């Protein structure tokens, strides 16, 4: 099975089931959906339950159970969809993927998205105080990327956690990665995103800046702007006075 065929077929293997409100003339305010995907790469199976753009639950196929995105969420009622039913859907997805792969391999171009990464702190920055860096990776397709962290070019793995893939309305996925840090001046953190089978990576950098220095710089820039405005205003007044005097002298010369 070719990688191009397997990735291209992933789009056809996405199975969405709307669980939201009944169809009305007005567009729904909120939408709850399930998205099931299957692919040759790891993870080979994925099932996410989302509310609007937020993931609520992820189905753990090896353990045959729903896991909440947040610890405080109540458990998903298993009677709505039993694990055997979900495993049957996953088996159908795999059969569909294999059949479509054999049909379109070499006939359809590979569908791949270019991930976009951004790094930001979870809490307001204070140098020397514990914080958590968040790496948001968007436009993932197929959902098979590795996310790593580096500090000053050295890989960091301690305390790193990742979320599962969250589907989006444009048939792509997003994923978060978290790194606990105690930022100091001069640190350079980077989030490295690598797609399976690629020789290149997408890197997003984050350098802690002292908020006090930013405020001082902002104050200095505001002061410089005010001084420049005042100087330009004085120059304008001086030009008006010189012009008025020149006209007065000319008129006086004519009358004499």
The value of Rg in angstroms is: 29 Å
**First and last CA, distance:** 103 Å
The succession of helices and strands, N to C, reads HEEEEEHEEEEEEEEEH
Shape annotation: elongated
Helix content: 25-40%
The fourth-level CATH homologous superfamily of the largest domain is Class II Histocompatibility Antigen, M Beta Chain, Chain B, domain 1
Q: What is the CATH topology classification name of the largest domain?
A: Class II Histocompatibility Antigen, M Beta Chain, Chain B, domain 1
CATH architectural grouping of the largest domain: Roll
Major beta sheet, strand line-up: 1-2-3-4-5
Biggest β-sheet strands, sense, barrel: 5 strands, antiparallel
Provide the number of structural domains.
2
Structural class: alpha+beta
Number of helices: 3
Strand fraction: 25-35%
Runs with pLDDT <50, length 5+? 1-5, 7-23, 250-256
- Overall pLDDT level: 82
Beta strands, count: 14
Specify the CATH class of the largest domain: Alpha Beta
Protein name: DMA protein
Transmembrane segments: 223-242
Signal peptide: 1-24
Pfam families: C1-set
């Amino acid at each position: 099975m070719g990688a191009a065929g397997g990735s291209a077929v992933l789009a056809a293997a996405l199975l969405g089931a709307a669980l939201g409100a009944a169809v009305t003339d007005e567009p729904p305010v909120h939408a709850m959906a399930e998205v099931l995907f299957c692919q040759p790469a790891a993870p080979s199976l994925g099932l996410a339950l989302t509310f609007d753009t937020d993931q609520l639950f992820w189905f753990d196929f090896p353990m045959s159970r729903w896991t909440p995105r947040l610890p405080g969420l109540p458990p998903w009622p298993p009677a709505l969809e039993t694990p055997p039913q979900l495993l049957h859907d996953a088996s159908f997805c795999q059969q569909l993927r294999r059949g479509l792969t054999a049909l379109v391999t070499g006939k359809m171009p590979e569908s791949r998205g270019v991930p976009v990464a951004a790094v930001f702190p979870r809490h307001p920055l204070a140098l020397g105080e514990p914080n958590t860096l968040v790496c948001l990776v968007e436009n993932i397709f197929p959902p098979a990327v590795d996310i790593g962290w580096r500090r000053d070019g050295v890989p960091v793995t301690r305390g790193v956690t990742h979320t599962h893939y969250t589907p989006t309305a444009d048939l792509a996925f997003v994923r978060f990665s978290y790194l606990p840090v105690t930022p100091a001046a001069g640190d350079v953190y980077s989030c490295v995103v690598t797609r399976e089978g690629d020789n290149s990576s997408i890197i997003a950098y984050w350098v802690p800046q002292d908020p006090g220095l930013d405020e001082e710089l902002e104050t200095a820039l505001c002061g410089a702007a005010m001084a420049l405005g005042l100087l330009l205003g004085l120059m304008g007044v001086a030009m008006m006075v010189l012009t008025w005097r020149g006209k007065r002298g000319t008129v006086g010369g004519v009358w004499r």
